[in-house]
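User: Hey, quick favor. My workstation is busy. Could you predict this chain's structure for me?
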Amino acid sequence: MSRDGRLETIAVAAEDAGARLDRVLSAGIAELSRSRLKALIIDGQVSIAGQAVRDPAYRVKPGDEIVVDVPPAAPAEPEAENIPLDVVYEDDAIIVINKPAGLVVHPAAGHASGTLVNALIAHCGASLSGIGGVKRPGIVHRLDKDTTGLMVAAKTDKAHKSLTEQFADHGRTGELRRGYVALAWGAPTLPTGTINLPIDRHRTVREKMAVRMGGREAITHWQVLERFGGNGSAAIASALALELETGRTHQIRVHLAHAGHPLLGDETYGSGFKTKASRLNAEARALLAGLGRQALHAWHLTIEHPVTGEVLAFDADWPEDMKRLAEALRREI
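Assistant: No problem, here it is.
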């Protein structure tokens, strides 16, 4: 049963002396995510001896009695919008969708409506989890606006906590797997490999990311599926399978561009490769010009069901625009 809308009291045991407040709360109120508990602390909803403690890193003392005022989950502020969803799987706890190109995941500057969140509110109604925040109810991971493919959203607090933990673990100890397919300029020399380079904000262009020493760890595994228009590294383009071991903003796009193989259609990270389009056949050139996005698709997702623990695996076929472009690339260039 949800603990929302009531007071929770936790007595600090001797073995927890000196532990961080947020860690003690996470262990004591297991069905709430640590991020939500941190938000409650900062909001002044956690008190010790009648005094609000707003520092998640506060070190508790033996005998401390922690009182947490857990309000009901905030209702989603974005309005419901009847935006069609390609639902791959749905039950009372989660919903898995195949996101189309052009759909922003959650409201942000310049995208106050018309987002996946607006669509989920309309589709799921009151069941949608509110603990992702009023702007991101149910959201546990993202895809770029113009990246297509599989996403899972939480419909309950318990599901949100479980899925958040799975994505934070990146499949290192659990079953989470995220597989992508992409069309890239050129082709790696080797059939498989790993890019392990840190990613941070670009030094001068703040809306871009870049490989930067001292940035956050980022690991991308890749495999060449097919080479187009030549052998080995001489290929004009290639189809790649990719798997993420971390989840940084624009990770695949940044890593491949840094390796010299930016995604076809990527105006942000591959603009310097536009002249290579002249080497494509007329059909491929026309399809690339009309693509209007980076050629990246999240085709596979494996998760552990947050309630049953069952391992669920989902696949989504290549979108039609990438499929047609790949078929044109196979023809003689």
